[in-house]
């Protein structure tokens, strides 16, 4: 087996927000996939261009070509979660972004891995709106890929267990470490790699999240403020791995 060159593009879901390490760095499912792939015996080179807060079109405009310029063998893509939280969302525009990524991967001979995000709607304000938009987007992306069995799929939106509170961080919008491990297990399984069984459901984490007005003050308020000021949580941030990081089968 030759070296697998895996690059990830996306937003906070793919960056790994919610799976914070003791030193403050974020890990997340994509890092775990690279590690799990290497542990299976493959030599893996890994890069991750994902930046939190990005809408789907900036992901494509800013991350796709630099990622392809690395000449990967595999590229994972997820986007649209931040679009769904905006007052006006065009599902067709998000689907068009997926189709563009697929077309460019075809042109470059890159294996595409498509993910849908996990479903946070049960814990969020406007849960019915978010659920409906997510259902529409998930169905539209699935339909767009219906005649492409060669595309690797790891659809997390329909996973009802993953949508339950024990898999989410304090802000209720990003998965915690349990959630990221479960997504990584699904991606590895889709790639034909057996993940550690525990990744599907790690022990529950302590429930320390803010409730009631404290939750709105700590998490919803800052989000609204960014919308009003036209700023993003990703402003000024750079990809955590914009060049290859090597993980070999020896660990």
Automatic annotation (TrEMBL):
InterPro entries: GDSL_Rv0518-like (IPR053140), SGNH_hydro (IPR013830), SGNH_hydro_sf (IPR036514). Pfam families: Lipase_GDSL_2. Coiled coil: none annotated. It comes from the Bacteria. Gene3D superfamilies: SGNH hydrolase. Residues 8-181 form the SGNH hydrolase-type esterase domain. PANTHER family: GDSL-LIKE LIPASE/ACYLHYDROLASE, PUTATIVE (AFU_ORTHOLOGUE AFUA_2G00820)-RELATED, GDSL-LIKE LIPASE_ACYLHYDROLASE, PUTATIVE (AFU_ORTHOLOGUE AFUA_2G00820)-RELATED. This is GDSL-like Lipase/Acylhydrolase. It comes from Microbacterium terrae.
């Amino acid at each position: 087996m030759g070296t697998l060159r895996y690059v990830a593009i996306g937003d906070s879901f793919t960056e790994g927000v919610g799976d914070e390490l003791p030193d403050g760095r974020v890990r997340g499912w994509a890092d775990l996939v690279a590690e799990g792939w290497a542990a299976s015996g493959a030599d893996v080179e890994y890069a991750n261009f994902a930046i939190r807060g990005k809408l789907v079109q900036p992901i494509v405009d800013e991350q796709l070509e630099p990622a392809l310029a690395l000449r990967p063998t595999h590229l994972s893509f997820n986007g649209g979660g931040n679009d769904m939280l905006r007052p006006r969302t065009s599902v067709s525009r998000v689907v068009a972004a997926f189709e563009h990524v697929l077309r460019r991967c075809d042109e470059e001979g890159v294996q595409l891995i498509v993910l849908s995000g996990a479903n946070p709607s049960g814990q969020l304000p406007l849960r019915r709106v978010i659920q409906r938009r997510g259902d529409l987007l998930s169905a539209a992306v699935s339909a767009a890929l219906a005649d492409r069995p060669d595309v690797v799929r790891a659809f997390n939106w329909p996973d009802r267990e993953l949508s339950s509170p024990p898999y989410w961080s304090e802000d209720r919008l990003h998965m915690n470490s349990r959630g990221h491990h479960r997504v990584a297990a699904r991606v590895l399984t889709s790639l034909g790699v057996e993940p550690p069984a525990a990744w599907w459901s790690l022990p529950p984490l302590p429930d320390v999240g803010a409730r009631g007005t404290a939750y709105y003050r700590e998490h919803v308020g800052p989000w609204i403020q960014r919308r009003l000021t036209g700023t993003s949580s990703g402003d000024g941030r750079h990809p955590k791995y914009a060049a290859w990081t090597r993980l070999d089968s020896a660990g």
